[in-house]
Amino acid sequence: MRTIWSLFLLTLLLVQAQLRAEVVISEIMYHPASETTTEEYIELHNSGPTDIDVSGWQFTSGVQFSLPAAPPTIIPTGGYLVVAADAAAFSAKYPAVTNFVAGWAGQLSNASNKITLRDTLENTVDEVDYTDDGDWAERWRDDPPDYGHRGWHWHSDADGFGKSLELINAGFDNSTGQNWAASTVTEGTPGAPNSVAAADIPPVISGVEHFPLVPKSTQAVTITCRVVDDHPGSLTVMLHHREDGAPAFTDVEMFDDGAHDDALAGDGVYGAVIPPKPNGTIVEFYFTATDGAALTRTWPAPARDYTGDLVQTCNCLYQVDEENYAGAMPIYRLIMRAVDRTELNNINRNSGTIPFPPTSDQTGVTRDSMRPLSAATALVRNCSIWPAPETGAMAPGPRSRRASMCSSRTPICGTAAPISS
What we know:
Strand content: 25-35%
Structural class: mainly beta
Oligomer: single chain
Shape: globular
CATH architecture of the largest domain: Sandwich
Number of strands: 29
Strand order of the largest sheet: 8-7-2-1-13-14
Number of domains: 3
Helix content: under 10%
Largest sheet: 6 strands, mixed
């Protein structure tokens, strides 16, 4: 009898786990164009083959709300349920949508938020940690220029421009921003299939690393990244790299065979090696991954120039450095292309109104105290830097800068801090 009861409990837990996996957060209106928080909503989608009773399930972070139990809240197979901030505001804006519940406490952040849905046993059903930068947005060149200078900023049509944030492939990992996009429909598609929905997306590129973080001129640099596709099969992963200022990138195929400093064969981590470079060299690199359906993703993604063209200019960087620093204070360095350093210096010497726009992307490397520079321990990609708004901002000598690093929980992001130079 004990064995039968144990098997019954195990079966019940497995069934509950399967049901949880089939209910996903599929759409988020986190920043309405009206700036009215009562117009926010979250959509749930049941991707499974059976109806699912979600009565008593709760949103426990982002906002707080318990799905009604009387009458029971059911999401039909293939169906949707909208959880809105306010019933009256939602009905006024979406009068044709009736599959919704409303009345949560709190509000969604316009910048970044972790939304957590739990079942009646307090198991996590789904969790989405969205932001308005990194893989959840696009890099855009500023237009018009600010006193002759153009910086870069993060842009998403879902961030106050009238669109919602929609999941693309509901059957794939919804924790990555590469599986989300701004809706093509103004005000989103609450309670209905997403406007950007697709059954197949390009491979997802994540976990980008290079080692050593600060190489010497005698050291080759290993570049690795993790690549996962929503339809398992053969993948072609390429590393594209060049020395700063070079006219073209060198294309190198990456491998997941355990022989290219990529850890274990077949583990999804791809590796390639860049030969040693002279002291002071800045190396720029990015990746492409193509699946069996010929769908290709580029990472970092191409940026949008002020002309509207997509340009591959906001890339990863590292710098070769022979310095042997023996001090006890930590080092914070920002690596940038020569053209961006020139732009930054020119901002210092121009007249105009502060704050000036940020320059192009940088890579940040930190070194904790009492560690050699070659053993730097933290890496932040796609930073921005601009002159700090302080007295004497037009002075020609060294002065303070302010670095801004995106809030996305990806290898291209970090925090913000002032830096003196």
